Amino acid sequence: MRAISVRNGKGDADALFVDSNVPDPILGPRKILVKIHSFGLNRMDIMQREDRYPYPLLPESGNIIGVEFSGIVEGKGDDCSDGFSLGDQVFGLAYGGAYAERIVVSEKMLMHLPSNLSFLEAAGAPETFFTAIQAIFLVGDLQPGQTVLIHAGASGVGQSAIQLAKVGGASKIFTTAGSQEKCDLCKSLGADTAVNYRTREDFAEVIERETNGRGVDLIVDLVGRNYFHQNMRSAAMDSRMVIVAAMSGSKVDDFDIRSLINKRIWLMATTLRTRDAEYQGRVRDTFLEKVMPHLVSGEIRVTVDKVYSWNEVSEAHKRLESNVNAGKIICRVD
Ligand SMILES: NC(=O)c1ccc[n+]([C@@H]2O[C@H](COP(=O)([O-])OP(=O)(O)OC[C@H]3O[C@@H](n4cnc5c(N)ncnc54)[C@H](OP(=O)(O)O)[C@@H]3O)[C@@H](O)[C@H]2O)c1
User: What is the distance between the alpha carbons of residues 157 and 151, in angstroms, rounded to a whole number?
Assistant: First the structure.
């Protein structure tokens, strides 16, 4: 089959190319073969392309990049349930292999495409919504009426988290983003206050002012080092902070654990790709229960930033690396 490969095994965006000589994936028990329509881009794809992905890749993911896709069921392995039939339109999460014409995945990681979602939108939904489900509900344990701060609000994960916090009953949603346009987008998704971090405004001061000094109950952080001290200032007593990424760096200077102790802050971190199939299946089921009805009703949406043909995958990666995207970058398998 054809798939995207990296010339010489690692390199910059220009090293990506459509390789027409890649072995077909092999169908096994309780696995489904999907002919891929589109795949979503994620930042871990850049690390994998550069051969600096920080965790060992699982054997089933192989070398092909890509963890989310949409497409059509083309084959079923032995012992599959009746959940999916040949010809079904589906989307799903994978450990790897989505930058390709075909993929084989566990049936636990697939979902039926609702009629109001296009293949392009669906290809960009699993990774960010599954991650946000962990951050907001499974790990973050947001309760109705609580306040939440979500960093990088216009990122894929940030947009999903804002919308989940809204349907989860958050009483006030604070967010940060890097332009007025991105702040406006966050507000259109449900954020009450969006702080443009490129202005002089300090999000910790805004939160102190707007919560009368109380702080927020839950922080979802994707930024790491640059925000750590302000996050400690913004956390309420008995609050929780879930670290999902450290886009500004992971080493924090002058961190005094007394700041955690004084406010009894629960500091947690989570990842999705390193979770086993059982856990990811549970996240899929939570998605079907808590997110899918809102996607069908239109209350929750997937923002597609830009669609490329997979022949332009290098350009798509360059856009992701430039940080200008607000939402998902999608490649269509042509
Ligand atoms: N733990 C997990 O399981 C998991 C799962 C999925 C993703 N992630 C990670 O989560 C992060 C976000 O992923 P995504 O797909 O949502 O990203 P995305 O849609 O590509 O958006 C990333 C945005 O983050 C902002 N940003 C980048 N560097 C920043 C910095 N130093 N300080 C503040 N903001 C910064 C930029 O927007 P502005 O213009 O607003 O700055 C950028 O557009 C990535 O690091 C990704 O690897 C982790």
Answer: 9
